[in-house]
Amino acid sequence: MEIVELFKDSLTYPTKQWDKLLILGVLFLIMGVFAILQAFGIVLNQYIAADILGIISFILAVIITLIIYGYTLSIVRKTVNKGDDLPEFDWGRNFVDGVKVLILSIVYYIIPVIITLIVIYATGAFQHLYQLIAFYAVSGSLAAAPESLLSAAGASFLTVFIVAAILFIIFGLLFLAAKAVLADTESLGSAVNMVDVFKKIGEISWGNYILWAILYAIIIFILSFVVNLISAIPVIGLIIAFLIIRPYIEIFAARALGLVYNESKE
């Protein structure tokens, strides 16, 4: 499938079955409510009842998040198996799949996190940040900070940013492909095998996969920007954003991933 056709399909796919999109949207709305309840728990943390409310809200929010993760994985699975309709919700399986996706994300992102922390330590970024904060606390401004400190801090921060950006982009690409492998094989072991995942991307074609990833990121960015704009509208905007646009983005993203993964089977 051509890249343009792939994204045309992915962009129209979420609207094929509005009932399932809205069910997913209700889950996002519930998560939003739980987030508000957690905020109340933090603000009113001097009350035991508020603490209990915050803890319960957090646990339920995690459960719903895992169900959403799992449902998006089922969309990828359905697409990989050449299905054109949205899968049914299977709450138990969706939850288990969500746990697998969470584990997979930890496996793939722990490496760039550790390497970034090492770079932060090696460049002295933490120390420079501490010195700048201390200087600001004393003088109320960084304008008079020693040029050597500003220069060293700038160099360390830039180094950390570049290294972190490169690592997270690379492992982000691997994670997406691994998620598709998980959906296809239903094996977490196969999905965490980075060598096999790397080969799978090669079967898709690195050039096509990177082009897909760029367009995918651009579309997600645009849709997320729309969400932020609509969310600025009091109450109604938030409801629309959570009930329709957020689930639309998740369904679109899962469908697009499944379709590009199918290129490895052509």
From TrEMBL:
It comes from bioreactor metagenome. The chain crosses the membrane at residues 21-41, 47-72, 101-122, 157-178, 213-245. Pfam families: DUF4013. InterPro entries: DUF4013. The keyword Flavoprotein does not apply. Keywords: Membrane, Transmembrane, Transmembrane helix. This is Glycerophosphoryl diester phosphodiesterase membrane domain-containing protein.
